[in-house]
Amino acid sequence: MKLVATLLVWLALAFGLPQVLICGVLLFSSGWAIPVVLILALVPFAPLVLMQEVGAWRRQPPEATATAALLSIAVSGGFYWMVFTRMHQIGQP
Questions:
Q1: Is the N or the C terminus of the chain less surrounded, counting Cβ atoms within 10 Å?
Q2: How far is it, in rounded angstroms, from Cα 79 to Cα 36?
Q3: What pLDDT, on a 0 to 100 scale, did the predictor assign at position 56?
């Protein structure tokens, strides 16, 4: 399970990197929605943080890390869907 969790974490990070770049661009034009954009920019890194041992916090079990990675992939997919539908609406005559 540990190998699967590690692979899911790296998949979530790879799937979320374009999201981080898009959010970096949106940060300058988002106005009041800056906190939402910052949260969406940090979501792909959450499973990677859970995989590490930080100070007094112990490492999370692989099931929790895998669940966080799957949630991160789902949020990234929803973000890409939102960007796609907004771009599609702009392209309509």
A1: C
A2: 11
A3: 75
Task: Characterize 52-70 residue by residue with b for buried, 16 or more Cβ atoms within 10 angstroms of its Cβ, and e for exposed.
Answer: eeeeeeeebebeebbbbbe
Tokens of 35: 């906190």
- Which residues, listed in sequence order, are joined to residue 54 by a DSSP beta bridge? 57
Say what the pLDDT of residue 93 is.
67
Is residue 26 within 8 A of residue 83, CB to CB? The reply is: no
CA distances from 30 to 23, 24, 26, 81, 93 (A): 9, 10, 6, 18, 25
Rounded Cα gap, residues 84 and 71, in angstroms: 20
CA distance 81 to 67: 21
CA distance 35 to 42: 11
